[in-house]
Amino acid sequence: MTRSRDFFISYNGKDVQWAEWIAWTLSDAGYSHYFQKWDFRPGGNFVLDMQRAAADSERTLIVLTPDYLGALYTQPEWAAAFARDPTGDKRLVLPVRVAPCETTGMLRTIVYCDLIGLSADQARTRLLDALRPTGKPDAAPAFPGQEAAQSPFPGPAAPAHPPSATASDALQAAARELRALLDTSGTTFRAQARLRDELAQRTRRRLGITAHFEFEELFDRFFDQFEPDELRLHRTMRAYTESVLHDYNQRTLDLLERSPGLADELPSSGALRLHLVLWLAKFKDVFLPTRSMCLLYVGVEEGVRFPREIEVELDAFLRDGRAIP
Predict the structure, then answer these.
(1) Which of 253, 278, 131 is nearest to 185 (CA)?
(2) CB 316 within 8 A of CB 173
């Protein structure tokens, strides 16, 4: 099948500035693409436009951010391209990371192009290099050995191998990874909370419920009375819990356990670890067997809340590079 454009640019609406910069950079370099802001015009059918753009593009470029990973509606946009190239031989799915985040599921198997921390010129060069079929440079690399005619360096000899990263460097890397994991989990939680509030409002209004129920109890008690549109919201929230939230909570716990030094720098890391252990246990023993559940909260009944101060401690540690007093 011949496809008329090189790329379909898949992005979350909150990242439109990055998406537009990438779209302009691709166009300026001679690549064709579908970009929703430019190509989906008033009067068109959004669903049909999206389907046509995905089907008519050779490759899918993902603008990778926590907001993108936290939105379920973006997943079908790249899933079709992934299905055509599950081994990655044709590189039909190209994630471009523009904000700290950690991929999950099938996306975790795909190498991304990282633009974080680069200047505009550096980002443009790296993005266009990522589109090339090979990473071979245009010019020959410098000879790594010593030239015969080179004068001896009067200073001390350089070590045969560069020094390994210090323990502080390793902790900084672990802290950055932890921040990215918490950012994506937080974005997903907020997206789920918006659906939660909508479903609770619909249910209470339609059924005339005046008594107070916590969200988990409300949805469990009236699950069998949900109408189709309410069941759709319920399934979407459950999918958030089963996929992104579970995966990221497990990865956060794994990170804390393989980086015990974080406990010396982040006083709340112990409370975070206990919160995650209880969340994962409740997920396995209570959530999965109960089809009427779509939310999973730990903290009120168990007395082990999520320690929000961990984010302040992380930011201080990453900024100052030292333990919190």
Answers:
(1) 253
(2) no
- Contact yes or no for 68/11 (Cβ under 8 A): yes
Kindly report the pTM of this predicted structure: 0.58
Q: How much is the average pLDDT of 83-89?
A: 75
Shared domain check, 190 and 106: no
Comparing C-alpha atoms, which of 310, 313, 240, 244 is closest to residue 275? Answer: 310
Residues 11/35, Cβ–Cβ less than 8 Å: no
Q: How far apart are CA 19 and CA 16, in angstroms?
A: 5
120 and 30 both lie in a single domain? yes
Instruction: Examine the domain organization and report whether 222 and 106 are in the same domain.
Output: no
- Rounded-to-integer distance, Cα 163 and Cα 170, Å: 13
- Arithmetic mean of pLDDT, 29-53: 84
Asked if 179 and 100 touch (Cβ cutoff 8 Å), the reply is yes
pLDDT, residue 74, reads 62
Give 136's Cβ-side CA count (13 Å radius): 4
Are the CB atoms for 75 and 93 separated by under 8 Å? no
Helix 120-131 and helix 16-28, axial crossing angle in degrees, nearest 10: 60
282 and 185 share a domain? yes
Element (H, E) at 276: helix 269-282
Predicted confidence band at 257 (pLDDT cuts at 50, 70, 90)?
very high
Domain boundaries, position 69? 5-131
Phi, psi of 57 (to 5 degrees): -110, 140
Q: Quick one: pLDDT at residue 100?
A: 84
If one counts every other C-beta atom within 10 angstroms of the C-beta of residue 59, the result is: 21
* The pLDDT of residue 170 is above 90: no
What total number of domains does the chain contain? 2
DSSP SS3 for 44: coil
- CA 204 – CA 217 distance, rounded (Å): 13
Same domain, residue pair 180 and 115: no
